[in-house]
Write a structure and sequence with these properties.
Helix content is about 5%, strand content about 45%. By secondary structure, it is mainly β. The longest helix is centred in the last third of the chain and has 8 residues.
């Protein structure tokens, strides 16, 4: 029996290095309190500073209708190396495109297969602390290493289960000298399966040195039910200094902040009212699940929430600030890609930043890397086409537009206030 669910549109969250920091015009009006031994930073609904709307310069774009030289499959991850070269993971074609910092195509590395330097069914990609390209394969879970020229470098050590059963990798990234891995474990029973989701910190020997989240659920084969809210995955981000940030509550604007030793340092809270969905939005967000059992397919019961998840994504900056995309920020006006909440090193809500440009969080993939924003146009429709999830749309027979990458320059435009 195989279970296939819709992949999440992922925002890759890395570091920004942006302009000159402005002086705060107001004062923070929140409070800090300790609850059951845990420090909570309670923020009001509004930030210290007024909304800051920016219009970054477009540096280059690759692909799309106007570029016949390259046709992408489904681009899910973006990373850059020390020289500024850009790496694009194509999950559909199982390869990595390498472009210069100016957008010039350099080469393609990796390919589909099971041999050295080969992979399939990928979930993520990043540059390791020692400069290799790491590609995460979902199942069986493993991390394939390539050097920047594409030469196989073996496998990155990863955790193994005592019973030898495989681990499913949902995503990963760098946190200081370690990795953070989002994993799923399966335990098959006669009439059900136990699914355990784990978010853990792993050292260079593949040992788990900290666990940030662990949750188990059982699926009954006779009555499969998938609920968007109950089955929501933990959101997370990690910075290069080793801090990790998580949100594991669909209905709470609450962010756990973990130190480099894995201990919970404090929780960031913000006053927030859930955003209600329209009927069309509820339908669109129903889990798309196919269950294949031998020669037939089962349609399980699926449920979607009447409200959006309060936090859509997290982005940790190396200077200690945190950018959060709330549900309303994902539904920004036309011409605005997204609007972020910005928190300083103490967890204070200091600013909102709206980024104008060609793209939208709801339809596209957003990747912050260094002082640039990369927008993957048409990611969601491409993923739907890849997994055969067009639904009952009147346009389901139409071919999705060719995927394009747009690179925006954020340097010198805005610096989050402390």
């Amino acid at each position: 029996m195989a279970i296939i669910s819709r992949p999440l549109v992922i925002i890759a969250l890395c570091a920004l290095t942006l302009g000159t920091r402005p002086v705060l015009a107001g004062t923070w009006s929140g409070k800090t309190e300790v609850v059951d031994g845990v420090t909570h930073v309670r923020n009001p609904a509004t930030p210290v500073e007024a909304l800051n709307t920016i219009s970054p310069e477009e540096l280059w774009r690759v692909g799309g209708d106007d570029d016949e030289d390259i046709i992408f499959g489904v681009l899910t991850s973006i990373a850059t190396d020390a020289r500024g070269n850009v790496y694009l993971l194509d999950a559909q074609l199982s390869q990595v495109y390498v472009h210069s910092a100016d957008g010039e195509y350099l080469r393609t590395i990796g390919r589909e297969g099971e041999g050295p330097g080969e992979f399939r069914r990928t979930s993520d990609m990043f540059i390791t602390p020692d400069g290799n390209v790491a590609v995460l394969q979902r199942m069986p879970g493993k991390i394939i290493l390539l050097d920047t020229e594409g030469e196989p470098m073996g496998l990155y050590p990863t955790p193994t289960r005592d019973d030898g059963s495989p681990v499913f990798f949902r995503g990963g990234g760098v946190a200081g000298d370690d990795l953070v891995l989002a994993m799923r474990e399966f335990a098959r029973k006669e009439n059900s399966v136990d699914l355990t989701s784990v978010l853990a910190r792993v050292n260079s020997q593949g040992e788990v040195v900290a666990t940030y989240h662990r949750e188990s659920r059982s699926r009954d084969f006779a009555k499969m039910t998938f609920d968007e809210k109950a089955d929501a995955q933990v959101l997370w981000a990690a910075d290069r200094n080793g801090r990790v940030y998580t949100n594991n509550d669909f209905d709470a604007y609450a962010i756990n902040v973990f130190g480099t030793d894995g201990s919970l340092e404090y929780v960031i809270d913000r006053e927030y009212t859930h955003r209600k969905r329209s009927a069309a939005e509820i339908e669109r967000n129903k889990p798309r699940v196919q269950i294949r059992a031998r020669n037939h397919r089962i349609e399980p019961e699926t449920r979607a929430s009447e409200t959006d998840r309060d936090i859509q994504s997290l982005y940790a900056r190396d200077d200690g600030t945190l950018w959060v995309l709330p549900s309303r920020g994902a539904y920004s006006p036309d011409g605005v890609i997204a609007t972020f909440d910005v928190f300083d090193e103490e967890g204070h809500f200091v600013q909102q930043v709206a980024i104008k440009g060609d793209g939208s969080y709801r339809d596209d993939g957003l990747h912050f890397v260094g002082d640039r924003l990369y927008v993957v146009r048409g990611l969601r429709s491409a993923q739907d086409a890849m997994y055969g999830e067009g639904g009952d749309s009147e346009d389901e027979d139409e071919e999705p537009e060719p995927m394009a990458i747009i690179c925006y320059d954020l340097a010198g435009i805005v610096k989050a206030a402390r």
